[in-house]
Amino acid sequence: MSSKLKLGAVVALVLGFAGLFEVQQLKLKHLMAENADLRNQLGQMEALHDTNEGLAAQLKAAIAASQTNQNELLRLRSQGSRLRQLEQENAQLKSERQQLALKMQQPQAAAASSDQGQVTTVTDLVKTSGGSPSLGTTDLGSLELQSGVPVNFDLGGGTNCIVTPTALADGNNTMQIKVGVANGDGTFAVLGESRITARPGQQCSISVGDRMIALAVKVKPFGWHVEFLMHVDEFPELDRQLADFPVDVVFGHLGYVNTKQTPAERGFQALLRLVKDGKAWVKLTAPYRLTPSAMPYADTDVFAKALVDAAPERLLWGTDWPHVFIKTAMPEDRKLLALFEHWVPDKTMRKRILVDHPAALYDFTGP
Questions:
Q1: What pLDDT, on a 0 to 100 scale, did the predictor assign at position 204?
Q2: Domain 223-367 listed as CATH 1.20.120.50
Q3: Measuring CA to CA, how many Å separate 307 from each of 35, 245, 266?
Q4: Burial of residue 59, with CB atoms counted within 10 A of its CB: 0-12 exposed, 13-18 middle, 19 or more buried
Q5: Considering Cα of 156, then 157, then 158, then 160, what sign does the dihedral take?
Q6: CA-based Rg of the chain, rounded to a whole angstrom?
Q7: pLDDT digit string (tens) for 118-168?
């Protein structure tokens, strides 16, 4: 009996050791699985670290490229300023050259008048002035033209402008303006022609139309238009001067009007008449170029709203990015759009200004 008990105890002990061994094996397998999982996670963390280092390097390169682009933009802006300065100097030199040519032509005009036996009184004279020279115009200076005596102006590049005044019975005067080129055989090929009427002694500018007429005639077959960046408040006869212009005319930046003026100013009223008659377009752009005040450039509101009230169907809009000439803080384009919505509260009209009008002017076609 004792032997059987001993044998049973031995068997139980062996089974206990076997069970304990099995439990240890299961724990070992579990630990090995956790170890493998930890190693996998460690590998993923190392991969993420490498990826982060790569992204950091790309970000550093992007920052360096952005700085380079910013420096390049600043350089281009400085070159633009210098270019505008050179253009102004060139306009001044051209004006001086024209005035010298006028002095040389005056004796010829006097001789021609004498040959024709004309006696011209002061009331038969029309004083013309080129006004303030602006980019793309020729200042003719101040001179007196005699009735029936044509005066030729060399505009450069082979282009000439012939102005012929004629005294009318009512005391007014007409000036026929022909722009063209002189041929080798001595004939004159007319590229464009215009006519203006003025009172005796009245100052009037013919600088806008001199070379522009010739250019407009050349670009008309292509369906192009001419855009003026000019201070309309300096041209009180603007609507009369451009009444018969051969192509569409576009004025940038609300007519570049001086905000110290009011919409009642004669030049701005002339612009309103042009757009009302459907003879010009105006861009509601870059209000910051007209005023030293900050966003929302409140002193430009009266001019923008006057244009909207007068002829909303002749308006365009844009951000004028990248804002190369600015007197105040750099504007945010979203705020410029909000300002446009303030000027044009009607949603349907905004859509026409943003979509339909540029499509008509630039001849966009749908898909």
A1: 58
A2: no
A3: 77, 21, 14
A4: exposed
A5: negative
A6: 40
A7: 322 222 223 333 333 343 444 455 556 778 888 887 766 567 778 888 888
